[in-house]
Amino acid sequence: MPQEPPETQGTPESESGLPFLDQSLELLWRGLPDTRRGPRRTLTLDQIAEQAIDLASTEGLEAVSMRRLARELGVGTMSLYRYVPDKSVLHDLMLDRVTAPSEAKLSNAGRHWREVLEIEARESRALYLRHPWVMQINWIRPVLGPGSVSSMELVVAGLQNLEMSDREKMMLVSIIDGYVVGTVRQEIQYEAAVGASGVSDQKFWEAQLPHLERAMASGDYPAMAAMDEDSYDAGWEETFEFGLTMLLDGIEREIDRRAPGRPE
């Protein structure tokens, strides 16, 4: 759908020289511009973002078109463009809202650094599983708003007493996030494959069992044939918690190694 030029959308002249970025930043940090001309506004940015999030979480990100969102909000499509200039800006509003601090993160003050990182990892995992559409948006270069910045502030504050440089702390946060994203992506893709095929887990593996039993009995795969029967029985959460423990144990050992007076 054709869009009005940025200057007619009520946004100030671009501060960064990147109008597409300024549109998101203005709405995230300053809200809707004050205007006394035109029809009276009947919606808020919070209402728009919440409706879009609900739609994405129930029907998938592909369902969130400006036309569909306008219909859900009870306004005309062109009326919605008076609030949000395009879908990329809408995505930025949605992401900033879902990444705002959770109750668990708000209680970071006074916690040990390990607990802070555990909460960060578990809350991020819960977020991605609750809103799998977030994984569909390329957020490698995020447009930062008050929600995401407030959330990061709580993590940074919770790591202040960690004996590492600020650069190292940010690398730790990135490592934890990378681990969470990787494990959750596997889980989401697995569940999506089950749904798309229409074949249950039990039927899928039962179909392969005769072939695998012959392979294990052939003597060509002795290491796998000798494995315990429950080797592949771990669930997603158990696997996640095991990996998180391994990561944090490694960090703790490095911190202990650096401790003053510890022999090299």
Automatic annotation (TrEMBL):
<keyword id="KW-0804">Transcription</keyword>
<dbReference type="InterPro" id="IPR004111">
    <property type="entry name" value="Repressor_TetR_C"/>
</dbReference>
<keyword id="KW-0805">Transcription regulation</keyword>
<dbReference type="InterPro" id="IPR001647">
    <property type="entry name" value="HTH_TetR"/>
</dbReference>
<keyword id="KW-0238">DNA-binding</keyword>
<feature type="domain" description="HTH tetR-type">
    <location>
        <begin position="42"/>
        <end position="102"/>
    </location>
</feature>
<dbReference type="GO" id="GO:0003700">
    <property type="term" value="F:DNA-binding transcription factor activity"/>
</dbReference>
<dbReference type="Pfam" id="PF00440">
    <property type="entry name" value="TetR_N"/>
</dbReference>
<protein>
    <submittedName>
        <fullName>TetR family transcriptional regulator</fullName>
    </submittedName>
</protein>
<dbReference type="GO" id="GO:0045892">
    <property type="term" value="P:negative regulation of DNA-templated transcription"/>
</dbReference>
<dbReference type="InterPro" id="IPR050109">
    <property type="entry name" value="HTH-type_TetR-like_transc_reg"/>
</dbReference>
<dbReference type="Pfam" id="PF02909">
    <property type="entry name" value="TetR_C_1"/>
</dbReference>
<dbReference type="InterPro" id="IPR036271">
    <property type="entry name" value="Tet_transcr_reg_TetR-rel_C_sf"/>
</dbReference>
<dbReference type="GO" id="GO:0000976">
    <property type="term" value="F:transcription cis-regulatory region binding"/>
</dbReference>
<dbReference type="InterPro" id="IPR009057">
    <property type="entry name" value="Homeodomain-like_sf"/>
</dbReference>
<feature type="DNA-binding region" description="H-T-H motif">
    <location>
        <begin position="65"/>
        <end position="84"/>
    </location>
</feature>
